[in-house]
TrEMBL record:
Protein's recorded name: Naphthoate synthase
Pfam family, one: ECH_1
Sorted UniProt keywords: Lyase
BP-aspect Gene Ontology terms: menaquinone biosynthetic process
UniProt superkingdom: Eukaryota
Length: 308
């Protein structure tokens, strides 16, 4: 008698076979916020980690000005991001904002705080000279080997919009609104602000974004290619958790390699350096590489071929 066929051998192919829908969408349980790093106490952001879900959450905390950023805000994000990057336990970083919808219009970030915009850049009394510190943060985000997820509610405008574009993934609430305003505000970002827009949505749409300074709904932004997924506002935290949980269950080295490769074409020599750094780090783990170090320390000639 012929054996009964295993039904899984004949199951029709389905995208749901990836099991993504089976991952819990219970919002991430954050530990108590990290109030300070070293002697520095955060003022413009909150920084939290989850011991359960291996993620870090960096949130703008200036709701009264729609989370517009000053040099201090950016410096604080840089510090938190450095900590999250170096912490081997953290697998994914979420960049978002603290929403107080009872008092203030929801926003992810309304860009550079115009009240501290001086003639040569932004200066809130903490810079040696006025500068565009956010450009350094953009580079730090690109170099961070871990996925950065922008979780966007409300307005993501100007420099805030660029920070979501530079993030690896963007998950948006249905109430999110996206746009550049630079040419209406006497500003522009000829670096990642323009080049990332073109890479995400194509040249014509990127020119529309920057030349017209129109605003776009979450669904329009998704159709343009700059938002990965749109969720109802009350489902966004849970769905973000699902994306985070899938990524932290994947290989960190594979994710870092993919991020470096995806950055490489746009980032030129800096992109190759990021990619090369990953390769060198892995090479250090090999017998061949260790032979160079050991031979030096043992004051002998290296024999690399013996380690192949
Ligand atoms: C976002 C709005 C359309 C929302 O409008 P509305 O709901 O009516 O709210 P408002 O009443 O306007 O705002 C509430 C409250 O917030 C204050 N506020 C909002 N945005 C800013 C801001 N950017 N700076 C300072 N303050 C802000 C606003 O004044 C209100 O305060 P009150 O005390 O209640 O009056 C609308 O708010 C709006 O259009 N905002 C401006 C958005 C904008 O144009 N942002 C871009 C600024 S330029 C920039 O971001 C460049 C940044 C930069 O550093 C850079 C430079 C060069 C190269 C690269 C970069 C880079 O960013 O990467």
């Amino acid at each position: 008698m012929a054996a009964a066929r295993n039904p899984s051998r004949t199951a029709p192919p389905t995208p749901r076979r990836d099991g993504f829908h089976l991952i819990s969408n219970v919002p991430i349980d954050w530990d108590k916020p990290v109030p300070r790093l070293g002697t520095y106490a955060f003022r413009d952001i909150t920084y939290s980690k989850s011991s359960v879900d291996a993620a870090a959450r960096i949130a703008f905390d200036r709701a009264q000005v729609l989370h517009a950023f000053t040099p201090t805000t950016i410096r604080e994000i840089q510090m938190a991001l450095e900590d999250a990057t170096d912490d081997p336990y953290v697998g994914v970083v979420i960049l978002t904002s603290n929403i107080d919808a009872e008092q203030y219009t929801p926003a992810f970030c309304a860009g550079g705080d115009q009240t501290v915009r001086g003639d040569g850049g932004y200066q809130d009394g903490t810079e040696i000279a006025p500068k565009l510190r956010v450009l350094d943060l953009q580079i730090q985000m690109r170099r961070c080997p871990k996925p950065i997820v922008a979780q966007v509610r409300g307005y993501a405008i100007g420099g805030g919009h660029i920070l979501h574009m530079v993030s690896d993934l963007t998950l948006a609430s249905t109430n999110a609104v996206f746009g550049q305003t630079g040419p209406r505000m006497g500003s522009f970002d000829a670096g990642y602000g323009c080049t990332t827009a073109a890479a995400l949505m194509g040249q014509k749409r990127a020119r529309e974004l920057w030349f017209l300074c129109k605003f776009y709904s979450a669904h329009e932004a998704q159709a343009m290619g700059m938002v990965n997924a749109v969720y109802k506002d009350d489902e966004l935290d849970g769905e973000t958790a699902r994306w985070v949980r899938r990524m932290i269950s994947n290989s960190p080295t594979a994710l870092a390699g993919c991020k470096a490769a995806l950055n490489a074409a746009q980032d030129g020599a800096a992109g190759i350096s990021q990619m090369g750094g990953e390769i060198t780090r892995l090479f250090y783990l090999s017998d061949e590489s260790r032979e160079g170090r050991d031979a030096f320390l043992e004051k002998r000639a290296p024999n690399f071929r013996s380690k192949l």
